[in-house]
């Protein structure tokens, strides 16, 4: 078997394994969720993500590292969707499995499962975003680390706006369960901050690994700051295109 076909076969097997594991978890946690309506709301974006990956996995196959990171995030999200994020019983799990209070260990005064998942959103998904920017946008050097951080920040903000809009639209207990502020007026700001910290750590770690392994890391980094087009790309370009169109 040629090397490319062998890699593709192994890659598809790994993707199938992750898909089956996620389907199993999704099915099990779909039974008797804490709040069925909140579970449905939480899984709208998951359904869209699954449809996106199902339609693009052939034309844009992600690395196994990216697939694993995405799977871990979706796995944790399904736990939050089953219990609602504010009611995930991690405190009881900690007491049962290890005999310790996680809230007491970290000095938490609220259920912080949602905050942890926001942090992991940045930590786990920044690398797949970097893979997209490298392979599609063809960024180099500094920008291959900076743009995933920016997209994480922007998407985190957008999600908070979606949460706010849904809470206002549905109102009542469903709106509050979906919003999950637990009485913290700065909840959205803190969620965005933790997602940003997670993505920053992911990119710093990736940069450190690449700096150690990539011989031309410094040269590529410096080259990414150089001006690639000497002339401005504003009105001059528009005028040139307009002249070309008139000649035709």
Low-confidence stretches: none
Give the topology string: H per helix, E per strand: HHHHHHHHHHHH
* N/C terminus separation: 53 Å
Radius of gyration: 22 Å
Helix run count: 12
Oligomer: single chain
Q: What summary fits the major beta sheet?
A: none
Question: Can you tell me the overall shape?
Answer: globular
Structural class: mainly alpha
Beta fraction of the residues?
Answer: under 5%
Arithmetic mean of pLDDT: 87
- Residues in helix, %: over 70%
Count the strands?
0
Structure description:
By secondary structure, the protein is mainly alpha-helical. The protein is built from twelve helices and no strands. It is globular, with a radius of gyration of 22 Å. The N and C termini lie far apart (53 Å).
Write the layout of secondary structure elements.
Layout: H1 3-30, H2 36-42, H3 44-56, H4 64-83, H5 90-98, H6 102-106, H7 113-137, H8 143-170, H9 172-179, H10 187-213, H11 217-223, H12 235-247
Helix pairs in contact: 1-4, 2-4, 2-9, 4-7, 7-8, 7-10, 8-9, 8-10
Short description:
This protein has 248 residues and is mainly alpha-helical. It contains twelve helices and no strands.
Write out key terms for the chains shown.
77% helix, 12 helices, 248 residues, mainly alpha
């Amino acid at each position: 078997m040629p090397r490319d076909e062998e890699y593709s076969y192994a890659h598809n097997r790994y993707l199938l394994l992750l898909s089956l594991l996620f389907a199993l978890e999704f099915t099990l946690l779909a039974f008797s969720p804490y709040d069925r309506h909140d579970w449905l709301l939480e899984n709208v974006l998951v359904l869209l993500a699954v449809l996106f990956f199902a339609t693009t996995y052939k034309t844009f196959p992600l690395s196994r590292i990216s697939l694993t990171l995405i799977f871990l995030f979706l796995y944790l999200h399904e736990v939050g969707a089953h219990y609602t994020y504010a009611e995930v019983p991690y405190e009881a799990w900690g007491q049962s499995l290890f005999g310790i209070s996680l809230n007491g260990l970290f000095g938490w005064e609220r259920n912080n499962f949602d905050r942890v998942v926001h942090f992991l959103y940045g930590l786990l998904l920044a690398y797949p975003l970097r893979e997209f920017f490298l392979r599609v946008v063809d960024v180099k050097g500094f920008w291959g680390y900076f743009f995933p951080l920016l997209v994480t920040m922007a998407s985190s903000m957008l999600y908070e706006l979606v949460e706010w809009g849904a809470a206002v639209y549905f109102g009542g207990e469903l709106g509050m369960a979906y919003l999950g502020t637990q009485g913290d007026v700065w909840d959205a700001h803190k969620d965005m901050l933790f997602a940003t910290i997670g993505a920053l750590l992911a990119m710093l770690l990736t940069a450190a690994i690449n700096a150690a392994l990539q011989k031309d890391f410094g040269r590529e980094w410096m080259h990414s700051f150089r001006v690639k087009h000497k002339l401005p790309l504003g009105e001059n370009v528009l005028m040139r295109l307009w002249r070309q169109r008139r000649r035709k």
